[in-house]
Amino acid sequence: MDIPPFFEPLDLSEFHYTGDPSAQSRLGNTIRIFSDNRDFPDYTSFDIALIGVKEDRNAVNNEGCSLAPNAIRKYLYQLNAGPYPIKLVDLGNIKNGYSVSDTYFALSSVVAELITHNVLPVILGGSQDITFANYQAYQSLGQIINIVAVDPMFDLGKSEQEITSQSYLSNIILHQPNYLFNYANIGYQTYFIDQDALKLMKNLFFDTYRLGIVRESLEEVEPIVRNADMLSFDVSAIRNADAPGNGNATPNGFYGEEACQIIRYAGLSDKLTSIGFYEVNPKQDKAGQTAHLVAQMIWYFIDGFYNRAHDFPFRNEDDYIKYRVSISDHKEEIVFYKSKKTDRWWMEIPLQEEQRIKYQRHYLVPCSYKDYQIACENDIPDRWWIVYQKLM
To answer: Which of 16, 25, 47, 70 is 20 to 30 A from 368 via CA?
Structure first.
């Protein structure tokens, strides 16, 4: 795939700490950047690629979020690199197509190409409907995936509605052929959610986690995020006081440091292969606060990525402690694996060999010690039961 024609280079005069010899540790001097005075980089030699998407034609109440990619870069480039060798490339911004679907095609083509070469795309939106284009990349790869969205709403819209930043999920669910195995929402706020939508999520065996429940035990987010192939973060999931640069910002939501923790969990996940940050609106941002916060979230993602333990359990079983738990009136044992390296947990869904091949990325379900405790108390963990019903 010839992807350079999809991109426009960056004008480095807009950014600090690019080429400043007194600030060599800043990311602006560490990242390889596609700019006006440099050729398009060989992206295959990098671990992570930044992609800007200046698209907001399908935004809802948030026109101006197309300006976000460069606003985020201004703060990201000023941050110091962590204590590890970084192989990060900034490919510039995707050229907007004549229609929004043209932009979707360009982005999905780029994401598929990067994933094929084991390069992780970090998408700087733009409106959140771009998540649909990210999903389409996996369709071209023929890969069944899990999506996690950090969002105060489900973005279902109506089935007959054209795709927008608040209806893209319906388009993903109804799209054929369909490659979505599971969708999980983190941080929904009940007063924004129609009860029929909650019932639909339950009927589809999707995972939904209310904001208040998540904040009570933030560490329980880790296995949810660890199960994702792609993550979509709507900045309106963060409370207005911490992220005012969004037309749909509300008083409640995650605190900035909680958002950073969730994104670091995403970076640590061996399974996750793409991530996007959406709905930052520089026109409504106070002193660049929201763009600065998202830049820090990306820093935490990079930090998590370079601290990955590579213990996703399709490796040597000697690296794991295996536990078998019998549940009364349940014919199947629940088998748990605990990594000796990280103490992270997984549950195994019993499948026939042919199903194991088809669902090899899904029958081992990330979980926590709490799920093991629930099983030991003669109860079936919700996480196990939901996936079991999907696969049976």
So the answer is: 47
Q: Which domain holds residue 349?
A: 317-391
The total number of structural domains in the chain stands at 2
CATH of the domain at 236: 3.40.800.10
Indicate the length of the chain as a whole number. Answer: 392
Q: How many whole angstroms from its chain centre is CA 256?
A: 17
pTM: 0.95
Per-residue pLDDT of 94-109, as tens digits, reads 999 999 999 999 999 9
φ/ψ (deg, to 5) at 39: -70, 165
Q: Is 33 helix (H, G, I), strand (E, B) or coil?
A: strand
Residue 274, amino acid: S
Nearest to 62 by CA among 152, 125, 14, 105: 125
Q: Is the separation of the CB atoms in 22 and 128 below 8 Å?
A: no
Q: Do 344 and 222 belong to one domain?
A: no
Locate 213 and state its tokens: 């429940």
Instruction: Give yes or no for a contact between 232 and 277, defined as CB atoms under 8 angstroms apart.
Output: no
The 3-state DSSP class for residue 331 equals coil
Instruction: Count other C-beta atoms under 10 Å from residue 103's C-beta.
Output: 24
Would you give the end-to-end CA distance of the chain in angstroms? Answer: 38
Please tell me the distance from the alpha carbon of residue 14 to that of residue 10, in angstroms, as a whole number. Answer: 8
Cα–Cα distance, 348 to 364 (Å, whole number):
5
Tokens 């935004």 sit on residue: 59
pLDDT of residue 357: 67
Model confidence pLDDT, tens digit, residues 251-261: 999 999 999 99
**Which of 43, 31, 49, 69 has its CA nearest to residue 121?**
49
Continuous H helices in 84-178: 100-116, 130-141, 168-174
- Asked if 224 and 187 count as a contact pair (C-beta separation under 8 A), the reply is no
Q: Return the H-helix or E-strand segment holding 179.
A: none
Question: Does the structure show a pLDDT above 70 at 314?
Answer: no
